[in-house]
Structures are given as C-alpha cells and as structure tokens.
From TrEMBL, chains A, B, C:
Protein's recorded name: Aspartate carbamoyltransferase
Keyword set, alphabetical order: Pyrimidine biosynthesis, Transferase
Organism placement in taxonomy: Bacteria, Bacillati, Bacillota, Bacilli, Bacillales
Reactions mediated catalytically: carbamoyl phosphate + L-aspartate = N-carbamoyl-L-aspartate + phosphate + H(+)
EC code: 2.1.3.2
Species in which this protein is naturally found: Niallia taxi
Domain Aspartate/ornithine carbamoyltransferase Asp/Orn-binding residues, every copy: 146-289
Family, similarity comment: Belongs to the aspartate/ornithine carbamoyltransferase superfamily. ATCase family.
Keyword Transferase applies: yes
Pathway where it operates: Pyrimidine metabolism; UMP biosynthesis via de novo pathway; (S)-dihydroorotate from bicarbonate: step 2/3
Length: 311, 311, 311
C-alpha cells in the first residue's frame, strides 16, 4: 500500500517509475486488479475536471467507484475525516482519492488507516497528480528534463502546482524560473527559483507554463483589468511569435481566455493544454495502480483491536 | 459519428431507422460496443426522469457513465460549454448527452468537437428523444402513421415536445391538430397545425396527446384553478368515454393528476403513459448506438493542432 | 419478490435465514443474478454512511446502480412517491432502496408496484438493515441470542434502531433492558423493555448498545453539556472497566466521541463499532439477494391496464 500525498515525498526514481507506467498506459497497455476493488472519490472542494479525470482512470482500471456526496456526509455534521475514512475502510473501500481545502488534511489519517490515500489537492499546497501530468507532458516532448528551461508565469503564491513543479523539475535536472507580477512574489518563493521578467522568460524557455489567475483568491489589492494583465504578463500572440523553435505552452486549465493566454493560442501548434488533460488520465491510472496493486480486495475483518476471536 | 440535435433535422428514413432499431431493443435484441466506451450526461437543467432513462439505456449498452455534476463544474465559474466538452473529449469521454436551458446551445459545439452530442432538451425548443419515444409508442399501436389523427392538447407554446412532434408526425403522414386554451396560441403555431376545440379533438382522434401544464413558466395572466382547467381543457372521465374505439392517451409526464387528466385515467386501458417511459429507454439505446457505433474507443491523441510529433 | 419494510414483520426463521445468508457473504460466498439487474437508491433524507454501504453491497452483487438525485427530482415539485417509483419501474429498474423522513412512507406503494422496496429508514420508525446488522454482530460473537442480556442506552424515544432491536432481540430469546436519562422515557417504551440505571446495565450486560445523541432532534428542554451527559450516562473508561468479561460495545455510528462513549474506547478490544459497519454490507447483500433472486430482469411490458395488445 502506497499513499500519494505530495510531489516532494517522491524520489527521482519514483517519479521516473510513475512516468514510465503512465506512458505505457498512454500507449495502450492495460492493467486490472485480479479482484473486484472499490474506490471512493471524496471531493470536499469541488473540481469537476480533476474528479472526472480520476473517474475515467478508475473505470479504465476496472475499479468500482462508490459515489460519495461530501455535501450530505456526516463530515458536515462535524464527524472527523478520520472517522469518515475509517467507515469507508470498514465497508470494504480499498482506497480513497481526496481533495480538501485544508492544508495537509492527510496528516490525521497517515499511520491510522490501512487503505491508501491519493491526494487530489489540499489547500494551497499539494496536487501531485497535476505535477506528474505536467512532467509526463514535458517528457513526451523532450524525452529528458536535463538542461531544459521551464518558466512558470503567474500567481505562484496561490498555485498548488507551481511550487511542486518547481521542486520536481529542479530535481529532475531542469532549470526553472518564475515570472509574473512582482507584487505577487515574496522571498520564500525566490529561494525556489529565480525571477525573470515575462519577455525574457517567454523568449528563452523550452516550456512556458502559465498559471490560472485565481480571481476568487485575490483581495483586490491588485487592480489590473483582464486586458491590462494580458498585455503586461499574458502570453499574447506577439509574445508567442518570439518563443524558441520547438518550445511548448502549458496551462493547468481552466483557462481564462485572453487573460493568461490569447484566445487563439489555446489550441495553437505549441499548445499542450489539452494534451495535459489527456495525460492526466494516464498519470492517475499509474498512481492508482501503484497504490492498489498489492491490495488483496474484498472486505477484511478490520477490527484489529479485539483480542478474542469472532466466530 | 452522428449527433442528435433536433427532430426536424432527421429525415423520414432516418426516423424510421431509429424506430426500427428501438423496436428491436424492445424485443430483447442486445448490442454492446467492442471496446470500453465512456459517456457523460450533462444536465444543466435538472430532469431526474430523462437522466435516469438515459442512464438505464447507457448501462444496457455496457457504457461507462462518468458522473458530471453541473452545479460544481467550471461552467458555473464562466467556462464556456465548448471548453467543458473539449475537456471531456481530452480525458477520453466518447460522447455527451446534454440538457441545457439555452435554445440551441449546441451551435457553439458543432464542427469543433469530435465526439457526438445527443440533445436531451434545450430551452423551449427541441427534445428529440422525447419525440422519438412518442413516435415509437404510436407506431407500436397502429403500425403506421399514415392517415392517423393526432391531437396535441395544452400549453403548446411552452412545449419542447409539441412542435417537434407536430412536424415529425406530419412528415410521417399523420394529421395533427392542436387544442387547449386559445389564449395560449399564436399565429406561428397555427401554421404548424390547425386548432380544434377540445371536445372535437378528443372525440375524433386516434391519439390524444396531453401536455403538462408548466406552472413555473406562466406569468399569472391566466387565472384558472386546476379544477377549472381540468373541466375546460382536461381529459375528464366524461370526455374519455367519448373517445374513438382503439384510440390511446399519451402524456410526457410528470402528470398533474386531475389537471391535464383525471387521476383514474392515468393508468386506464387507453393510457400509454407508462409505456412511453418504457419506450424511452429503447429509443435512447437506439440513438446512442447510432452515435457510438463508429467510435473506436480509448483515448486518442487529441492535439491535432500541433505540427510536430510528440514522442 | 420480497419487500423489506420493518424488522417486526420478519418472523424469527426469516431473521435467522437472513443472518445465515449474510454470514455466508462475510465468509466470501458470492452470488450474482443471472441477468443484468438495475437498482436505484432513493435517499430523500441524506445518509452517506448507509448509502455507501448499500452501494458496496449492490456492486458486490454485480447490480447496475442508477444514480437518483432526490434534490432535483420531480418529487420536489410535488410528484407523489408512487408516480416516481412507477416511473423507475417503467424504465426498467428492478428494485428500490428508499430512505424517507415520513413514517411508513411505503404504505402508498405496497400492492401497487411490482418491484421490491427495501426500507433504508423511515422517520423515527424503522431501519431494518441496521437492526439486522446489529443482530449479525451479536450472533457472530455469542453464536446464540438465548439468555443474553442486552442493554440499550440513550435516546430511545428518537431511535429508529432501539425499538426494532428490542423487539427482535426479545423474540430471539435475549433479555433487553433500556437505560439513559429517565426524562427521555415514556410509558409506551417501558412496555417493550425494563428500565435499569446506567451502572447496573453496563455492569451486567453481555452487549452494551449505545445510541447516538440526536442533537438535531432535541428541543432544548434537556440542558446537559456533552461532558455532563458523558459522566452521567456515557460509557466512560471507568464504567468500561466494570463490564463483564467477554462483553461487547456497540454503537450505530456516527459516534459523538466523549459523549456517548469515551474517545479511547471507540476502537478498544470490546468495541464492535467498525465490525458493525463491516457487517452492514453483508446484511444488505443478503437482503438484496432475498428481494431480487426471483426477478427475471430486463424491461417488461408494464402497462397491464391495457386490454388490447400492443404490436
């Protein structure tokens, strides 16, 4: 049983192993567990996109997906996450995919439950399957990360993805730079990657990774219009023309068209935006396989606390 | 790949082909695609009845149905329908069933996405699977449409079904008349079918098709009580006794009992109301088969915009 | 076709038969219907826990579970439960699991629909699968009910489970006593079982069955804090030490930790709380099998009211 909680906990060989497995799925490889296995997706923060991607991955692996409605669950009435997951474990669920707005929500679970937890996003912190699908997309394009220049542009402070990606890409041998409004940067971020102005970053990178503007998270202290942001920090058609030959554009989606990126560029030659979504399914298949391949399946007698046998 | 968007786009031979296929399913024929195929039902306007019917049809065909929660999707945050469907296409969904309150919502999709769209209702306009299930029910009863008299009674202006049915039935050789409160009619409707008073329509028709009173759509300008409506325009027990021998009663449901139709008549000998629901599953199976039978299945590399190969 | 509506309608041999079948499932027995069968879970009152348990049971039996969203169904617009279930029957659903806040909601269905109804809880009254899973847990522990002393402690007046359990346990040969705040008892309850003070009940019972405090149902007339309730009527660590050797603790969950039971005792040696949840799946499999094993499957022509044949 293997959890997947953060990108940073994965060693470079573990990342490479997941990418290799995902690539095999992309090329048509199939894998199904020997027994009927049950999985539940607990999305305490809505995310149709990520949830649908997990659902497709789960069905491709032949898993039984148990619907779990977070809005009506006992968690709303104050039940702890531990008690909820322990209940699912008791009724025979073999693994859980969780998205939760609280940072590191999984700390209360680890070591106490026996089924794997796959983190589908926590607070502002971690979103490892998104990082891994980004890595797969880059690897498919360039075969190796060694010496690649990757610029990550936008609201890095609020981005689950940016910080995990910067860390993993650096460990894999890439050179990462951050860009975007200087107002959104602080010193802690600049320990992770250097800052470059937008034009330099876009012109010199192999991968231009744009982040979604999180309107809902900002406090109004920055007062650009969408059009102003686009001209100052967005990937305009004019900037795209100055990109390196063979370089690619990435974005975790959903895209604010004509804000982070010009509408016409979303599906341009360089864009790997929909390719990223496609790869998300293969990454999730690989991650699920990694977590579930040693699970025996079926309900097991879970009450280990009892010291005398139940007939 | 075939979309199903409106009844009017279907030729008479196409309608006959769908009815024939649905009748074969009604008689126990089975069909399943060779590969695992994924489908999503996007109901932006709730309709448990239609959604459940599609779900049963989809499961009978062995499809994988990916849950899609419209209330928490990015569409709510302003994502276009195109970007949503394009995302589903990217993650490997092979077809979408959509209900949407906007008229002709599908215009922004057609020609731009590669997976089939099946329209499960748009605005006040089209609801082709409802029309087709009505046609199947009539055909099962009378074998042919030629020379049949069909009266459609009620709120025709607000009815998705009435106008599509009138058009299709006329093309198939039936004689359609409209009836109900004159206040609810306008000139455009009377180009589609003649108006007859309720008593004449009911006494002389082979098929009496009642429409649901859409309380929620009316502006209060008509001020009948339910009882008054029932006496003036409803199918009362007294009117039912004057129906032609062998004639049948239809209603798209849900029924307002004792408004459009007397409570005791909902499941009377002449009623095909629950038969219509039963036929809905077979029609949806036929329509899904028509759309999916040429789909290869599996994720395909969807980024056609890129001009250089991805490893 | 067998409904499961209340525990009291089950004879002792019927209860024993269900427990035997559930125990076989617990030991790994498998059973699947010969044909594809469809089931819908209609939870008009939310209960993630019970719903997930039914879902796992249904998937283990290979059933097709049709999602039914009660919040958007026509029931909200005033459609009767009968019309809703009749619709599901018409589209080919072979059985329904229903939770509803109205007492005996199923009375309007019985004898009028042809598919089995499994009651997953009604009002304050019945919750037969919860009773049966409690019985299975006790039987696994003690092999027989004869002469066992079972105390049920807490809010018996508002408990679906307590009264059904008291009745069934008594019929099976056990000696049941009630305990908890005297203010919560009335004469009708004391016809079902004797009252004992909490300390006596806990010290002398083979099974201590705690009930959840239903904060949401109380009117504020009782004014203990959680801590006060715990000290006066809860299973404290101190009380647990005085329990009989080999005696067990049960609770229907979700638990209010440190109210009905001390936090540390929820997973102690004596606790069968998570074992109960595990057993819930096997009971639901047994109950579903009992209801579905004679169903033929597939859509049947449901319009029995028509007197002339449909082609």
């Amino acid at each position: 049983m293997e959890n997947l909680l953060t990108t940073s906990e994965l060693t470079v060989p573990e990342i490479q192993e997941i990418l290799k497995c995902a690539q095999a799925f992309a090329e048509g490889k199939e894998w199904k567990p020997e027994k009927q296995l049950f999985l539940a997706n607990l999305f305490f923060e809505p995310s149709t996109r990520t949830k649908c991607s997990f659902e497709v991955a789960e069905r491709k692996l032949g898993l039984e997906v148990i619907p779990f409605e977070t809005t009506t669950s006992s968690v709303v009435k104050g039940e702890t996450l531990y008690d909820t997951i322990r209940t699912l474990e008791s009724i025979g669920v073999n693994g859980v995919v969780i998205r939760h707005k609280e940072d590191n929500y999984f700390q209360e679970l680890i070591g106490k439950i026996k089924i794997p937890v796959i983190n589908a996003g926590d607070g502002c912190g971690n979103h490892p399957t998104q990082s891994l699908l980004d890595l797969l997309t880059i690897k498919q394009e360039f075969q190796s990360f060694q010496g690649l220049k990757v610029s990550i542009i936008g609201d890095i402070r609020h981005s689950r993805v940016a910080r995990s990606n910067a860390d993993a890409l650096t460990r894999l041998g890439a050179n990462v730079v951050f860009s975007g409004p200087k107002e959104w940067f602080d010193d802690s971020m600049l320990q992770e990657a250097n800052y470059e102005d937008v034009d330099t970053a876009i012109e010199t990178s192999d991968v231009v990774m744009l982040l979604r503007i999180q309107h809902e998270r900002h406090d109004g202290s920055t007062s650009w219009t969408s059009e102003e942001y686009h001209q100052m920090y967005g990937l305009t058609k004019e900037r795209e023309r100055r990109m390196k030959p063979g370089s690619i554009i990435m974005h975790p989606a959903p895209v604010n068209r004509d804000v982070e990126i010009a509408d016409e560029l979303v599906e341009c030659e360089r864009s790997r935006i929909f390719k990223q979504m496609e790869n998300g399914v293969f990454i999730r298949m690989a991650v699920l396989k990694r977590s579930l391949q040693s699970v025996e399946g079926g309900n097991v007698h879970v009450n280990d606390y009892q010291k005398w046998p139940v007939a």
